[in-house]
Amino acid sequence: MKMGDLSAHFSKHEFRSRDGAEHPIDPRLIEMLERVRAHFNSAVIITSGYRSPEYNRKVGGARNSYHTKGMAADIQVRGVHPREVYAFCDREFANGGVGQYKTFTHVDCRGHKARW
Fold first, then answer.
1. Taking Cα atoms as reference points, which of 74, 71, 45 lies closest to residue 59?
2. How far apart are CA 82 and CA 63, in angstroms?
3. What is the Cα Rg of the chain in Å?
């Protein structure tokens, strides 16, 4: 696996839209994900990174989704329950969006606090 395009542990191919489209990923998001990885000392798996507007519509994503701006990722941390990941992100990322789901956690760097 090719690592390090974006940071020590993340590569741009991990964020590619499922339809193959690519988009620059906001460096603030990468910083957030590196902090998650460091805190849990475990791999962070990107289950959904960038989404092209077409793909976002196809999957029923929010109209102005931060995924379509390269500013959001849905993640899983190997060996860590999404509830624990959410709790950490909620405490640490006052200027971002954090969403708790059954099998993953959403994080984004929107610049203000949003929780769900």
1. 74
2. 25
3. 13
Number of CB atoms found within 10 A of residue 50's CB: 27
What lies within 8 Å, CB to CB, of 21 at 6+ separation is 50, 52, 54, 55
Tokens 């760097």, residue? Answer: 109
Q: Which residues of 16-33 are buried (b: 16+ CB within 10 A; e: fewer)?
A: bbeeeeebebbebbbebb
Q: What is the pTM of this model?
A: 0.93
Tell me the C-alpha distance between 85 and 24, whole Å: 25
User: pLDDT tens-digit profile of 13-52?
Assistant: 999 999 999 999 999 999 999 999 999 999 999 999 999 9
